[in-house]
Target: Cupin domain-containing protein
Amino acid sequence: MNPAEITLAPTTTAPSGDVIVTAESLRIGTGRTRRFVGLDHGAGISYFFVDNEPGEGPGLHWHPYSETWVVLEGTAEITMGDRRLVATTGDTATVPAGVWHRFENVGDGRLKVLCIHASAVIVQTWADQD
Model:
């Protein structure tokens, strides 16, 4: 066997406890956005499911890991460093670690985006922090 290979044996034993995380349990406040922190659920990634009205979106921030956005519905203007891009339903974009970024719903209807953080915990530094 090549020493760089990893051999795993699959199991038919499912994890114990709750394996389905309900949408309601992830909801942030009274809004439609949900936050999943992977560490709390044995996952190596975290995510936000964002559901915004026109004109809404998070402020400028960065992470010490990459973030990938999947636009599920609507139109987003994405700012990555000094670039501005437009993504629509079905598009995917990734911002590298350490790059300032934000997005905003620039469409007429709701914007639904899955924001996948390449980390079991969410670490954000906001530009407008005092």
About this structure: The CA atoms of residues 61 and 130 lie 13 Å apart. The helical segments are 23-26. The two ends are 55 Å apart (CA to CA). The beta strands are 34-36, 46-52, 61-62, 67-73, 75-80, 83-88, 92-95, 101-105, 111-117, 125-126.
